[in-house]
């Protein structure tokens, strides 16, 4: 009933939504820089590598794009309270930040295990005025936080908006999140055009739930000359059972309201995932042996652009649009193991003077370097 | 073939348009979700909503298909309360699973416990031969006496809120596999997002970084 009354009172007439969104670019620190990584390029010895610095956004990741967009949308719907799930804490921090700015109540659902691992981000969320709700069911990580957030949302639909953090969940969430993240690809395109007058040869992004990757790929989907490459967390290796290679090894199924590739057992049960990046393991696994830095994801191109969004969602499954891009052959998805990610991390840190977030960026960077070795480019 | 029936769920948040549509696809009975939330998740003694009679009356306006009420139903009080409304059935699920799981002993003991529970729960006053106060409450709350003719089925088919506002799938992926209680909220969100997309300013190409830098300089000057 309550949600019903709101429907009639909401004004769906088009107005200046994007203008409103862009008005926050100063706050979000957009556009983010596209930066030629000379050290990395030299080290790789092949393609020129560009980094799209989403890590320099406000709150340190691409998550702010989506958080601001959805909070503005929620405001239009007359909602006063925002709930969100978070794995590594990046989306939680971004959401709490947007809520503080727009005067919304904020509640962040987080697996109890993640609360323990991500103490700093928990602290940030609380300072920003958000409540952190530890979830103790299941593996106490991201997938359980999503379950809890969904349950909580159902009981409070009239006042509450569920700000989903990655391009996952039931329609229309994957579309909404992609639409707020596609600014990444749009900027890469126009920035590279200004700098070099051409399109990149390849765009590389890390994929967990896949919000930074779909945001990066989206504007290039029709540019067939541009290779779209997603890198998943390979954990200990895809031959082991400790990884998050959802697209590479998963099977289609339904989780959290959406049909997509999932890591599942023969009986269709969700398999816990693993990655050193707390954000890249959607189905998440055991404690990562790597400090929970907040981080950066990356997108590269032969002119390679690396975005620095942090950890993508720690999802049991990947966003449905990636499943489609994989099956249609438009994008290719590969895997980088923890070891490769750490090598990438070292290269980026020492050759470029950029300390990237734990896995995403790393595995991308490493994948990039490796790609050259395999003469992919 | 397998003699399966599709049983739609109707939640407190379900809109009239959606109820009208769901009534057309129900072929045996409709499951009325008594409150928002997940099944079996409440332990409170009285968790069946006070708004239930009105909710049932609202559904009865659209269909004569039997209604069974579930979610948060666990005790004899709940059962009796629902029995006095215009609903035709009561659904108890989680409580029974829990009961059978909690009993020590073998199959026989569990079966006995279950039988006792069912007897106890359903032994209350039934609505037949009983004209409690509740019936009057129901009548007061109901805005209209059930009149099926109000909703011609052809109109329902067209008016169903299944219209595609934004594409819900990417090839065979995507979709919306959600509990009925979320359907209308997601649809509302979809419409709001579509309205945002329809914003005339979005059709303009994204500003170049030069333009953006210029506007950033301007805002700095301000």
Secondary-structure blueprint:
The complex is a heterodimer of chains A (377) and B (222).
Chain A: H1 2-9, H2 17-22, H3 25-28, E1 34-36, H4 38-44, E2 48-52, H5 63-76, E3 81-86, H6 90-102, E4 105-111, H7 112-117, H8 119-127, E5 131-135, H9 142-154, E6 160-162, H10 173-181, H11 183-196, E7 202-207, H12 211-217, E8 227-233, H13 246-249, E9 251-255, E10 258-262, E11 303-307, H14 320-327, E12 331-336, H15 338-352, H16 360-373
Parallel strand pairs in A: 2-11, 3-4, 3-6, 4-5, 7-8, 8-12
Antiparallel strand pairs in A: 1-2, 9-10
Chain B: E1 9-10, H1 16-25, E2 30-33, H2 52-60, E3 67-70, H3 76-83, E4 89-90, H4 94-102, H5 107-122, H6 133-141, H7 153-159, E5 169-170, E6 173-174, H8 180-197, H9 200-203, H10 209-221
Could you explain the architecture of this structure?
Chain A has 377 residues and is α/β, with parallel strands linked by helices. Chain A is 40% helix and 17% strand. Chain A has helices at residues 2-9, 17-22, 25-28, 38-44, 63-76, 90-102, 112-117, 119-127, 142-154, 173-181, 183-196, 211-217, 246-249, 320-327, 338-352, 360-373, and strands at residues 34-36, 48-52, 81-86, 105-111, 131-135, 160-162, 202-207, 227-233, 251-255, 258-262, 303-307, 331-336. Chain A has a four-stranded parallel beta sheet with strand order 5-4-3-6, with helices on both faces. Chain B has a four-stranded parallel beta sheet with strand order 1-2-3-4, covered by helices on one side. A two-stranded antiparallel ribbon of chain B has the order 5-6. Chain B has 222 residues and is α/β, with parallel strands linked by helices. In chain B, α1 (16-25) packs across α7 and α4 packs across α5 (107-122). Chain B contains ten helices and six strands. The model of chain B is unreliable at 127-161 (pLDDT under 50). Chain B has two domains: 9-156, TIM Barrel (Alpha-Beta Barrel), CATH 3.20.20; 168-221, no CATH class. Helices cover 46% and strands 7% of the residues of chain B. In chain B, β2, α2 and β3 form a beta-alpha-beta unit. Chains A and B meet through α1, α2, α9, α10 and α11 of A and β5, β6, α8, α9 and α10 of B.
């Amino acid at each position: 009933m309550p949600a019903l009354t709101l429907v009639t009172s909401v004004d769906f007439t088009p107005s200046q939504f994007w203008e409103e969104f862009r008005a926050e670019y100063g706050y979000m620190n957009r556009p983010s820089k596209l930066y030629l990584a000379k050290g990395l390029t030299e080290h790789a010895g092949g393609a020129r590598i560009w980094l799209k610095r989403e890590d320099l956004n406000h709150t340190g990741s691409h998550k702010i794009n989506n958080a601001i967009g959805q909070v503005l949308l929620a405001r239009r719907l007359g909602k006063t309270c925002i709930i969100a799930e978070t794995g590594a804490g990046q989306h939680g921090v971004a959401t709490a930040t947007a809520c503080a700015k727009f005067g919304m109540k904020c509640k962040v659902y987080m697996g109890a295990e993640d609360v323990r691992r991500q103490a700093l981000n928990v602290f940030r969320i609380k300072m920003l005025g958000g409540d952190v709700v530890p979830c103790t069911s299941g593996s106490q990580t991201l997938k359980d936080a999503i379950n809890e957030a969904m349950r909580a949302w159902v009981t409070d639909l009239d006042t509450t908006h569920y700000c989903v953090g990655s391009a996952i969940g039931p329609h229309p969430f994957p579309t909404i999140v992609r639409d707020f993240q596609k600014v990444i690809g749009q900027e890469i395109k126009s920035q590279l055009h200004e700098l070099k007058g051409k399109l990149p040869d390849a765009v590389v992004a890390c994929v967990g739930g896949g919000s930074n990757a779909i945001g990066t790929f989206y504007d290039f989907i029709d540019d067939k000359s541009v290779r779209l490459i997603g890198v998943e967390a390979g954990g200990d290796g895809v031959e082991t059972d400790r990884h998050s290679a959802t697209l590479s090894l998963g099977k289609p199924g339904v989780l959290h309201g959406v049909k997509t590739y999932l890591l599942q057992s023969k009986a269709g049960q969700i398999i816990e995932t693993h990655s050193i990046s707390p954000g890249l393991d959607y189905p998440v696994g055991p404690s990562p042996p790597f400090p929970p830095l907040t981080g950066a994801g990356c997108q590269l191109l032969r002119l390679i652009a690396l975005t620095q969004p942090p950890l993508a969602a720690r999802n049991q499954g990947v966003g449905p649009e990636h499943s489609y891009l994989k099956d249609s052959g438009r994008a290719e998805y590969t895997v980088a193991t923890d070891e490769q990610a750490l090598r990438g991390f070292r290269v980026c840190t020492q050759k470029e003077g950029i300390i990237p977030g734990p896995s995403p960026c790393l595995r991308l960077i490493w994948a990039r370097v490796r790609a050259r070795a395999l003469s992919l480019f | 073939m397998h003699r399966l029936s599709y049983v739609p769920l109707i939640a407190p948040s379900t809109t009239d348009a959606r109820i009208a549509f769901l009534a057309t696809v129900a072929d045996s009975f409709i499951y009325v979700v008594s409150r928002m939330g997940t099944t079996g998740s409440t332990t409170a003694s009285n968790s069946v909503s006070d708004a239930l009679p009105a909710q049932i009356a609202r559904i009865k306006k659209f269909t004569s298909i039997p209604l069974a009420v579930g979610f948060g139903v666990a005790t004899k009080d709940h059962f009796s309360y629902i029995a006095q409304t215009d609903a035709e059935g009561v659904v108890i699920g989680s409580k029974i699973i829990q009961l059978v799981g909690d009993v020590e002993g073998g199959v026989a003991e569990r079966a006995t416990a279950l039988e006792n529970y069912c007897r106890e729960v359903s032994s209350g006053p039934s609505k037949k031969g009983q004209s409690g106060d509740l019936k009057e409450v129901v009548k007061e709350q109901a805005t209209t006496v059930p009149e099926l003719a109000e909703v011609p089925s052809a109109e329902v088919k067209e008016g169903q809120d299944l219209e595609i506002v934004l594409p819900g799938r990417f090839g065979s992926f995507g979709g919306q596999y959600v509990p009925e209680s979320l359907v209308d909220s997601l649809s509302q969100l979809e419409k709001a997002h579509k309205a945002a997309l329809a914003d005339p300013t979005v059709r303009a190409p994204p500003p170049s970084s030069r333009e953006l830098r210029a506007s950033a300089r301007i805002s700095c000057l301000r």
